[in-house]
Amino acid sequence: MEIITSLLKLKLKVRILIVPQFDFDSKAICKTMSITSLAIYNCDLSDLWEIFKYIPMLKKLQVEYLHNINITDDILNLNNIYTFELKQLIINYFKSKFQALQILLKYIPNLKILSIYAPNNIEMADADLWQHLIEPSLVHLHIFKFIFDYYAIDDYNKILKKLEEFRTDFWIKQHQWYTNYEINESLVSIYTMPYIGYEYRLTPTMNKYVNSLINHSNGFNNVKNITVWLKPIIKNLYYFNNIQSLTLTCEDDDDDDDDDDDDDQIDEYILSEKQIKFLHMTVNLSNIKHLIIDDECCMTPSLLLKILIQSPCLSELTIENNILTLYLKNSQICELLNKNIIKLDISDDNRNIYIKSNDIDSFYSASNCQEDRCYMRLDNLLLILSKCTKLSIIILGKIRQDIYSWIQINASTLNIDFYFTLID
User: What is the pTM of this model?
Assistant: First the structure.
């Protein structure tokens, strides 16, 4: 509140406002400053009504999470709250009915740019509903970007026929809004290109229906996080150029192998040279900062080494410690990890599996690691602290009384932040 008061006294010419929610303090700012761009984290339709009321000159509105919209036009009495200046609306996560969005959009008649992501919402993936909204109410809409998905129970051909409605003359010739759609088992997705999402999952069960009119060369440049299934090889038409976080997995939900037959199971999941080549053809590794290796995704040290060499920006690694142990015997891998990895996560869902002392010697002796997330015994913690001098953050998860007691006594002498939960 003191910050708000200071801003009001200074009477700064603030044009852009970023707030978690539109509350009393936000209204106070908007009354005295000519806000033209607003980013808000969490709101519903009644909040937007307040925004339109207090910020009549708003030109751009970005909402991270728009939800629980069950308010009708009559209840809100919005007849005099048209926002004629608003030209751009971005909704990063929409969770409500199409009717609620329809009520909102008809009060933004001059909207030119609309971007929306609406997961698990079958209504939103209805081309006819959109056309009947856009033609009378959004005549100035020029750029329309979206991702819609839902879980379907209909016949496969019926689903395809419904999605094809996004490729009529209204969408293609009149507006040049081009879409791809995908069916991944029961999950149906349709999205405009270029793809607006930051995350993407490339699965072996995915059937893609690509619009041949689209140039896909830069279509996924906005994607920063990708999960790639490497078992089996996926037929892929896309290239992901700007990936910062890569998750590799070979998990197969239909795999009914006997868990007791460990040797056979490991052999089955070891990646081949062909699969690594596929990865290179799909993802630009040169921008990756965070590599996540799923516990089901084993590869030979030589293949992992190829990935590490082609990922010069890599600084974060997430891998279960029992998998990491397989690679620490390779001196080149150890050297690259020690040199490049600043954040390491080797925590394991099985909290009875701890990092071993000989592994600490192999990895931490010349490590540049500054943040470490792992489960360990007290003796291993002391060894890591002696080996890794650059550590500034250690995330221990749940710890026992002996480690807690040691931290209480010694934490003040160390320039390290400890994060943990004490086991009762």
Answer: 0.84
